[in-house]
UniProtKB/TrEMBL annotation:
This is Probable membrane transporter protein. It is a multi-pass membrane protein. PANTHER family: MEMBRANE TRANSPORTER PROTEIN, TRANSMEMBRANE PROTEIN YFCA. GO terms for cellular component: plasma membrane. The keyword Membrane applies.
Length: 273
């Protein structure tokens, strides 16, 4: 078994320490009891399911955050909490990640992020959601095997991995949604559930800091996003720990069915929100 560098293993604790130092819990009253029960429950459930499948946080918690905050800070809060989940799980996901798949994906993310940033600054939010719905919808068909009669959609090549990374980078910068493209591709090429979950979550480790930096430069960091993120640390931690505990008991077939279900929910959310 591959051992993990101490610096990587300490990442979750460093992030929690950073949150403690940069966000004043006494000023903001960092307790989930101050927030709507629906939001706390949604974040707990979303954290649990993201720990199991690698995606799902934005689908479940995203809409509730948007309704609760009603501003761009909802995207920033979603980025912070999703990154926290990925960091908490990094000691177990990094050793299991498919590095052959990850390297081209990250190259694609770096290429796609400026394109997504340009789209974010020039297109309306409705246009962004429509474009994302078409892209994720197509990839959902591929992941579900609907297009399996055409082997080209299930072939794994370096060029295709870079291409998926570009799509992930575009969606990451434009809508803070890097996960669906990676999960759909990993499912389509028939990766096992451990590889899908690990590769998706480690992609988050690389993509979300880029998305947050983009938000900081072009939008500005919302104090409300930091406040709500701090208050939601506890339900996020609880859901992540529970999800990581039950993930090993989820059968392969059920895992892939749940992944496709979340991809479908992502498309519906993009179309209806």
């Amino acid at each position: 078994r591959q051992s993990l560098p101490a610096s990587v293993a300490c990442l979750p604790f460093l992030v929690l320490r950073f949150l403690t130092l940069t966000v004043d819990p006494f000023r903001w009253g960092g307790s989930p009891a101050d927030l709507p029960l629906l939001l706390v429950g949604a974040v707990f459930a979303a954290s649990m399911l993201q720990a199991v499948t690698g995606i799902g946080f934005g689908v479940i918690a995203g809409p509730v955050l948007i309704v609760t905050m009603a501003n761009a800070g909802a995207i920033q809060a979603s980025i912070l909490l999703s990154l926290l989940i990925a960091l908490l799980l990094s000691p177990s996901t990094i050793p299991r990640v498919n590095r052959r798949l990850l390297a081209p994906l990250f190259l694609g993310v770096c290429i796609g992020t400026p394109i997504g940033a340009l789209a974010f600054l020039t297109l309306t939010i409705s246009s962004l959601k429509l474009c994302a719905a078409v892209i994720v919808g197509f990839m959902t068909l591929v992941a579900a095997g609907v297009l399996s009669r055409f082997p080209i959609f299930e072939n794994d090549t370096r060029i295709r991995r870079v291409g998926i990374g570009v799509v992930s980078g575009i969606l990451n910068a434009a809508l803070a949604m890097p996960g669906p493209a990676v999960a759909a591709y990993a499912t389509a090429i028939k990766s096992d559930k451990s590889t899908i979950q690990a590769t998706t979550l480690v992609t988050f480790l690389l993509a979300y800091p880029v998305a947050f930096a983009f938000q900081a430069v072009f939008v500005g960091i919302s104090n409300e996003a930091l406040e709500i993120s701090m208050k939601l640390v506890l339900p996020t931690l609880s859901g992540t720990v529970l999800g990581a505990s039950v993930a090993r008991f989820v059968p392969e077939r059920l895992f892939k069915s749940v992944t496709v279900l979340f991809l479908i929910m992502s498309v519906l959310l993009l179309v209806s929100a």
